[in-house]
Amino acid sequence: MTPPVRVIRVGGLLSLRLRPRPLLVGTGSALLALAMAVLSIGTGDFPIGPADVLRTLAGGGSSADTFIVDQIRLPRVLTALLVGGALALAGAVFQSLVRNPLGSPDMLGFTQGAAAGALVVIIVIGGGSAAVAGGATVGGLATGALIHALAWRKGLHGSRLILVGVGVAAFLSGINGYLLTRARLQDAQSAVLWLTGSLDGAGWGVAALLSAAMAVLVPVLLIGCGRGLRALDMGEDAATSLGVRVGRQRLALLVSAVLLTSVAAAAAGPVSFVALTAPQLARRLTRAPGPNLLPSLCTGAALLVGADWLAQRLIADNPLPVGVVTGVLGGGYLVGLLAAERRAGRI
User: Fold this and answer.
1) What pLDDT shows up at residue 298?
2) How many C-alpha atoms does 63 have within 13 Å on its Cβ side?
3) Is residue 34 part of a domain?
4) 97, 285 in Cβ contact below 8 A?
5) pLDDT per residue over 26-48, tens digit each?
6) Is residue 7 classed as helix, strand or coil in its secondary structure?
7) Residues paired with 17 in a beta bridge
8) What Å distances lie between residue 252 and 130, 181, 201, CA to CA?
9) Distance CA 88, CA 310 (A)
10) Most confident option among 3-7, 172-176, 298-302
11) Span 102-127, mean pLDDT?
């Protein structure tokens, strides 16, 4: 059953269509993400209570609390929120474009492309963290251009994009494996840690760059491309009849989603399964058709900051990279999703 829609008119020119349940899910996910952020900031070797965390964030904490919160823990938590939101939003766009719940940057090769760019910098060039971030961004964009060129044939269709993406992902995985075998031991260790997905190196510089990218790309997708994506979700014929320029809209969506994936990988490495899992969780919670972009973004932010908190607390004195936790949780979810698709007769 289609959820009820409320139309709010602002003046005579602008109208907003609101579905109460998706709005409630998005708000709840955002509040959960903020609550997990406060919890994560307050836990550690120097515990700080939630009230003291909020007081410190407001500028009223002690000097010790201010140093720990502002300089050590807040950049990591903010990066987790932004990376989770970016990956989930990109995953929602890809899944809507290919009209397949398995469509995500992990499956389509974009994450592997970002990883290849970072590995070239780490192993071949020997650059620092800023160069690694730049390499990951360039690698993701180059992979996006390659997949677009290979998949384009009188338009960009979902099934063709999936097949080309899976092939490119397999090719890049082989290249990445070869680069690891040719690396020095120290470089290989750094590369493997980055490939796992980690927030250990997150600082204010990383958070600022990611915030700037999100400030541009999120409005582009939510406001500039949201209507076109909802129309494309109903099929190309329906989108064309509604006046959507399908080819141009698909290209804009693809570029924006690849950019989100690339900057997220540049900030924290190729954190796995968030882009696959968060949009599906959001869709099941909202029970609404369409891409559910805003609920997906909020769900992804809550998922990654919660996974990072769990990764730091799961094994005492031996924190795990956040990618290990998302990989285990996301892998289990993927198995369940495949089982459900098989029961439904779709695979």
Assistant:
1) 94
2) 0
3) yes
4) no
5) 899 999 999 999 999 998 888 88
6) strand
7) 7
8) 27, 37, 31
9) 19
10) 298-302
11) 84
In degrees rounded to 5, what are phi and psi of residue 288?
-120, 145
Q: Is 147 left (phi over 0), alpha (psi -120 to 50) or beta?
A: alpha
Closest CA to 115 of 173, 201, 182, 170: 173
Cα–Cα distances in angstroms (integers) from residue 178 to residues 89, 106, 172, 196, 312, in the given order = 31, 19, 10, 17, 31
Q: Do 88 and 274 form a contact (C-beta atoms < 8 A)?
A: yes
pLDDT at 17: 57
CB atoms within 10 A of CB 331: 14
Task: For residue 164, tell me if it sits in a domain.
Answer: yes
pLDDT digits (tens, 9 = 90+) for 145-192: 888 888 776 556 667 778 888 888 889 989 888 888 888 888 888 788
DSSP state string for 56-74: HHTT-S-HHHHHIIIIIIH
Q: Are 311 and 76 in contact (CB under 8 A)?
A: no
Residue 81 has pLDDT above 90, yes or no: yes
| CATH number of the structural domain spanning residue 89 | 1.10.3470.10
What's the number of domains the chain is made of? 1
DSSP state of 6: E
Q: Is residue 10 situated within a structural domain?
A: no
Residue 344 has pLDDT above 50, yes or no: yes
Task: Name 315's Cβ contacts closer than 8 Å, sequence gap at least 6.
Answer: none
What's the alpha-carbon Rg for the chain, to the nearest Å?
20
Is 11 inside any structural domain?
Answer: no
Residue type, 153: R
Kindly report the pTM of this predicted structure: 0.86
Domain that holds residue 316: 17-38+77-339
So what's the pLDDT on residue 347?
61
Digit-coded pLDDT (tens) for 199-223: 887 888 888 889 999 999 999 888 8
Cα separation, 90 vs 110, whole angstroms = 11
Give the span between the Cα atoms of 339 and 232, in whole angstroms: 27
Backbone angles phi, psi at 72, to 5 degrees: -110, -55
